[in-house]
Structures are given as C-alpha cells and as structure tokens.
Amino acid sequence: MRVGALEIHPVHDGWARMPATDLLRFTGGRDDPWLPHEEFLEADGNIRLSLGGFLVRTGDRVVLIDAGAGRIDNDVYHGGQFLESLAALDLGPDDVTDVVFTHLHFDHVGWSTQQGTVVFPRATFRCHGEDWDHFVAGPNPEAGSVRKLSPLADRLEPFDGDTTVAPGITVRHAPGHTPGSAVIVVADGTERALLLGDVVHCPVELMENEWEAVVDVDPALARRTREALAKELEGSDVPIAAAHFPGLRFGRLLAGTGQRHWSFD
User: Fold this and answer.
1) What is the CATH number of the domain that holds 128?
2) In this predicted structure, what is the pLDDT of residue 161?
3) What is the reported pLDDT for 257?
4) Is residue 117 in a domain?
5) Which of 237, 241, 243, 242 is nearest to 253 (CA)?
6) 3-state class of 40 per DSSP?
7) Radius of gyration over every alpha carbon of the chain, rounded to an integer in angstroms
8) Cβ-based burial of 208 (10 A; exposed 0-12, middle 13-18, buried ≥19)
9) Residues 6+ positions from 97 with CB-CB distance below 8 Å
10) What pLDDT score does 155 carry?
11) pLDDT in tens, 103-112
C-alpha cells in the first residue's frame, strides 16, 4: 500500500484458525449473525486469521508495526515465517530501527524476543505505557508477558498519548481491547492509511456496531472506540488494514443505507 512517498509492506508470520464464536460475539440478537458475512468464514464456520505485522521505511528508519506470533505452532496458531518475510523485503533483524506495538498480546510481540534474546538488536521498542503496566510492570502482570518482554525494558520508549514516533507515523490511543491499545496512522501530505491492531479483528466489527471481541479487556470501552472509528472512516476512502485481516490486505469502509459495507483493495 502506497501512501504518498511511503509504502506499507505486510510482513506475514503465519495464520490462526478457530471457531468464529471463539473470537467474536454478536450482541444484536440476530439468529444467525454471520449470515450476511459468510465471505469471512470457512465452510465449517471457522474463521481464519492472518498473523504478522507491517513494515514502513521512512527516511533512514525501518519501522515494524507489530511483530507477529513468533515460533508458536499449535492447534490454533501457526507462526514462524516473520523473519523469512523480512528477508523477502531484503531486510534482516539488524536493519530494523523501530518496533511499534499496537498492543502487547502474545500474537503481536512474538518476534520481539526469542529465548530471552532481543531479535532486533538495533531497534527502539515502543508501546503505550498503560499496556506495559498492564502486562509487564504493574501490580498484576501476566507471567508470560514478563518473560517475553522484560528483555526490552532498557530499550523501551513508551508513549502515553497520541504522538509521532517516526516521520509520517503517528500512534493514536484506542483503548478497550487492551488498556493501551493503539491505532497507527501512516500519512504523507494529504494521504493516509490506518493500521488498526486488534481494535478490529475482522471487518464485520466495522460494518455493524453489535460485534465485540471475546478477549476485549473492557468490552464497553472497546465498543465505543470501534464505533467512533467506524464513524470516522465510513465513506472516507481511507485504506485500512489490521494484523488479522485476510492476507494482511487493505480495504475501505463504504457508506451504505442501514449498514456499512466493506471492500478489499
């Protein structure tokens, strides 16, 4: 995806597959909530999610947005391809100058460290301070996150609000899915694109307000965040992607009578 002089590259790490009801629930009371959205499901009712992140070169900076799931390979999650995908872009771990996390769930930080070693040795790491406190440094951290992310502490630069982290790359606080969940805006001149992290897992969450993710930390706040985002993006022609969209593809939220519509680029 080109945004002015900047280009956003998907960095594939793998895929996940699960029953759709294990990921999203519909609160609107419709008997078959997926019926209008069957194109996002496999024939058996499972939903297939991409795993990975995005890369932007800006000036002399090489910026990763999210770092995939790592080497995890189980009945649901199948990672492991992230460094190969970087190599296909003629980049290695030493070339990455910045890693920006939309949030700190395991399937977005997988390649930050491996067995206690930082994978991108020259990079500065950034996330919202509320997520760092929630997962790592606060009074009730998650043990797995502490093991995974503590090696980043001396090279972490947390942010606490909307801020520019590199030329053309701005983070916007979008809480609810996690306390520090963020949306990334890539912009050049009048052109922009949005990377939604897990504010949205599947385009259906933008098309209808009645969806929510099973793992949202604060479902009510996450819904308000999504509704505001959908209102902002509807009919705007701004390209949108998220780390779990099929193929890490961009699309656009189209205005419609009674319901928004989605179109992949």
Assistant:
1) 3.60.15.10
2) 87
3) 73
4) yes
5) 237
6) helix
7) 17
8) middle
9) 60, 61, 62, 63, 122, 123, 124
10) 97
11) 999 999 999 9
* Closest by CA position to 27, among listed 212, 228, 219: 212
**3-class secondary structure, 137:** helix
Alpha-carbon distance 59 to 175, whole Å? 30
- Any domain includes 192: yes
Domain limits for position 252: 2-23+34-264
Residue 29 lies in a domain: no
The answer to whether position 28 is within a domain reads no
pTM score: 0.96
Sign of CA dihedral 94, 132, 173, 203: positive
Please state, in angstroms and rounded to a whole number, the distance separating the CA atoms of residues 79 and 72.
5
What would the pLDDT profile of 164-211 be if each residue is shown by its tens digit? 999 999 999 999 999 999 999 999 999 999 999 999 999 999 999 999
Distance CA 168, CA 170 (A): 7
Helix or strand (DSSP H, E) at 169 = strand 169-173
How many structural domains is the chain composed of? 1
Place of tokens 């009919």: 235
Cβ burial 221-240 (10 Å sphere, 16+ → b, else e): bbbebbeebbeebbeeebbb
